[in-house]
Write a structure and sequence with these properties.
Length: 156
């Protein structure tokens, strides 16, 4: 790192580590998370659905988790299953820790394109997982009550 590039109020050793960790932009020393993220379409994300190239969408952010596969506590199969897809619901259902959410930041490569966010919202605006489970449970209970009434009526 050239001393002329480093701001004078930041010690050179810290600046070098910041650049090495990619947490800061080399050109302007703007925190990387404050820079505009690249936009990816769902189609672009779908092209990264191989065990050697795993991208996924979580909360409209695009992550390349390929290097994380072997470290994932739930096993790499879980990540590969959702490669190239939106895994927001599954991610939320597991209840990841704040440490896990913090660790994700290093795999963030962009965000979902606005047009695909709108499409996704229309598609997902139906029933959530909780509502679907409640609907299934309610339907099963109603069927059970109905069968009990039929059985009771036939006994008389």
């Amino acid at each position: 790192v050239k001393p002329s590039v480093i701001k004078r109020d930041i010690p050179a050793s810290i600046a070098v580590n910041l650049v090495r960790d990619k947490s800061f932009s080399f050109r302007r020393f703007v925190p990387a998370h404050d820079m505009a993220l690249r936009q990816y379409t769902l189609e672009e994300v779908r092209q990264h659905a191989k065990p050697t190239d795993v991208w996924m969408v979580i909360h409209d952010k695009v992550y390349d988790v390929t290097k994380f596969l072997h470290e994932h506590p739930g096993g790499e199969e879980v990540l590969i299953e959702y490669a190239g897809k939106d895994a927001t619901t599954e991610f939320d259902d597991v209840g990841h820790s704040s440490d896990a959410k913090e660790q994700m930041k290093q795999y963030l490569i962009g965000e979902l394109a606005e047009a695909d966010r709108k499409k996704k919202t229309k598609v997902n605006s139906g029933l959530t997982l909780d509502k679907r489970l409640a609907l299934i449970a309610g339907s099963a209970a109603a069927i059970g009550v109905g069968l009990a009434m039929i059985f009771k009526a036939n006994k008389k």
